[in-house]
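Hey, sorry to bother you again with one of my protein questions. I've been puzzling over a protein and I'd love to understand its fold better. Take your time with it, there's no hurry, and the full record follows here:
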Amino acid sequence: MSRKFKPWRFQSLFIVRALAALVIASIIFCEVLLAQENEIGESRGQYLGFHVSSGIDSYREDLLVPLGFHGPGISLGGNYTHRTENNSIDIRLKLGMGYLKNRYSHEAWALALEIRPSWIKKLAVHQKYGELWGGICIPLQMNNLYFESWDDAHLYWLTAHSLALATEWQKKISQKYKAMAQMEIPLVGWVSRPPTYRYNKQDALNHLSFHFTEPNKSLHFETLDDYRALFFQLLFKREMRRSLLNLGLEFQYNYCRNPQKIWGLNTSILLSYQWRIGS
């Protein structure tokens, strides 16, 4: 008999290791800041862009069934960026959909909507190691799950509006190419989950507004003990005269243990294009 896999233990270890890696990286870049402060040339200004991404989505909702659902997902979105010499404001919007199955081929669907406004400031610069930026992000996320084979009458969701630490590293590879890594880790959040017991036979799934209003009701305050998340993005950017072409990898993790455990993993390949606006 195979050993039972306990995903929440894996997720907790992953978050602990990610936090440890972030602390180590911060120490290294502080040493870099003390070592040297040379400016790296880079395009500044205001940009409007769009992106498309595709990858694998995974969810497990213990309120309904203790089984993981996995499958392909796709998302579309846009962003606005205003970057100056020492500050950057970024607002990202994303709409994603996923088609999922468990090991018994039971079907499910995932719908995700998120807005990520962030502000970061340049913290360290080094000719060899690149630039380190840091600041805050306020991710507003809604993840709806539809378990067609198990419960086609009710909606399941994880909605989280959180305050996160944001960090970004970027390095010029050549005259036109640059590598960039971004990470966001929430510290506190306001979370909404379905009730443990349903006293209605059918949710109002035939009303479009229900899918957006119901998951945003009954928001309650949560800390890292009950709600954890991680956003990571690795991009390779090609700078052109008035635009940027980005190709990279995006990873998202969400976990909440109230009223029952739910976790989600999303890994995708991302392609985006940004136009410079203004002078």
